[in-house]
From TrEMBL:
Pfam families listed in its UniProt record: Hydrolase
Species of provenance: Trichoderma arundinaceum
Biased composition (Basic and acidic residues): 1-10
Disordered: region residues: 1-43
Alphabetical list of InterPro entries matching this protein: HAD-like_sf, HAD_sf
Protein's UniProt name: Had superfamily
Amino acid sequence: MGGPDSRELLAHGAPPWPFSGPERHPGQRCSGTGSDSAPAGPAVGQPFSCAALPPIISPGRSRLSPKIIATLAAFIRRRLLSAMASPGSRRFAPLRGTPDLSPFPGAPPLKGIIFDMDGTLCEPQTYMFREMRSVLGIPQSVDILEHIDKLPPHQQPPAHEAIRAIERKAMASQTPQPGLHTLMSYLEAYQVPKAICTRNFDVPVQHLISKFLPNSQFYPVITRDFRPPKPHPAGIMHIAQSWGLIDGSGAVDTSGLIMVGDSLDDLTAGRLAGAATVLLLNDVNKELATHENTDLVITQLDELIHILENGFQGRVIEPGRLPL
C-alpha cells in the first residue's frame, strides 16, 4: 500500500516503542478486529515457528502527548542529519568465511533481516489495492490506511472490514516468491534473526507462514495494527529493540539490519530507521531501482544468499544528500 511522503514524518508524531494499549501488548496475538488474543510470546530474542504462532504486534491507540511527538520527531531528524553527514555505503561482513578474508575489512556483522510480506515473501497481489480504493471510493493518490483513519469514528470499523474482506479473498491465491524456501533455509542455517513488518492485517500473514513456511522462524511479526505503520520507521525500531539491539548510549541500534521489500514504503521505513535496504524488483516497481532509498536490488529472493556470503555493500550515499 502507498504511504505519505516521508518528509512529512518529521512533523508526524507517534508513541515511542514498544507500543502498548490498555489491553494489547507487544508479544500478544491480536486479530485484525482486536477482538481476540492469545498468551504472550516467548522472551525477547527467542525465535518463533508456526508451531507457536508468531506474535502479531497490535497495539491499542492512544492520544499523543507533546513530549512523545517531540521525541520521535527529534529522532527522525537525527537519523536524517546522520545520513547526510556520514557519506559512504552500508556494509556487512560475509556470513561465511573469515574476517581476515573479507572484502570489507572492519565491516560489522549482520544482526538480522526484516521482510515485507505482500510482494516480498509472496508474489504481488496489487489488484487488491485497486479493489480497496474502489470500495472506499478514493483515488490512487490517496493512502488507504490514512483515509480510513480520517473517517468519522463510526465509519472506520466497516471500512476496515471492507478491506480485510478483500485481503481474505486474495490470500487464497497467495503464491510464494521464487527462491523463498532456499533463502529461508540459508538464513536459518546461519541463525540470522528474521522478522516481518507489513501493512497487511494478521490473517493473511498467518496464512502465508502456515502454508509456505511452517518450519521458519519469525519474531516479531508486525502488522498494520502497529501504529504508525510503514513508511514510518517505528515498526523497524520496535523489532530492533525486541532483538536487544541497543548501542552504548542506550538507544535502539538498527545499523546491523536489512529491510527487504518491494515498495517505497519499505525502503523509506528502512532508510529512516537507519537500516540497509534491499529492493525485490518486479514489473511495477522498476523506477525504485535507482531511488535514493535503495541500497541493493535483487530480482529473486535467493539472490540475497550470494550477497550475504560475500559481504553486503550498499549504494554510496553522497555527503549532504537527503536520503529520501
